[in-house]
Amino acid sequence: MIFKKSGNKAYVLTNNHVIEGANKLTVSLHDGKTIEGKLVGADPLTDLAVVEISSSHVTKVAALGNSSSLRAGETVIAIGNPLGEDLSRTVTQGIVSGVDRTVSMNTSAGESSINVIQTDAAINPGNSGGPLLTTDGKVVGITSMKISETGVEGIGFALPINDVRQSLISFSQKEKLNVHISASACWISNKFQMCIKKKLSDLKAVSSIKACMSKISPQVHLPPKLA
């Protein structure tokens, strides 16, 4: 999703593990047009990245909610492209299973412990960087990973949007951005393909981003599997 539109530029948020190592970023819009993306900033330790695109086809931006107000049992919605663009804009529903969880991950910048929201909304490869929303359409999290083990079902994690805001402030200081977005990601064959979603039916902006690698060598390894 797009969090900022300013003049002829717009900005998209995704997970760092989606674009890390990319030689080129291309963005596929909802109308089929493909445009180039430019990496504005990335932080392996928080697993966040911001991509700049042309705003010529951007009409709306996503609204961020307040993740601190989430409570266990609250209904949430995840949007993503599980397994690729053929299943783009897939919507799943679940509940907040827990808040203030901590997950440790090994990144290209070293070990990091991050605060996450636990949810049983279906999160699969292709959801990385996608929005976790409340029923009123406010983004409260960025879906990032899940536990994928035999006998384990419905344990996914999202980065709380309030924590994301703090990380984006550091990006904004460099690029003079304001904060407002989310995206989603899919893993296709030997490429990372970041499929940026519109927020429900009224966001008509980005449909997908491809992070093209000359060589795939993922540098982020979590005990939970990256979605």
Automatic annotation (TrEMBL):
One of its GO terms (molecular function) is serine-type endopeptidase activity. Pfam families: Trypsin_2 (PF13365). Keywords: Hydrolase, Protease, Serine protease. This is Uncharacterized protein. GO terms for biological process: proteolysis. The lineage of its organism: Bacteria, Bacillati, Bacillota, Bacilli, Bacillales. Coiled coil: none annotated.
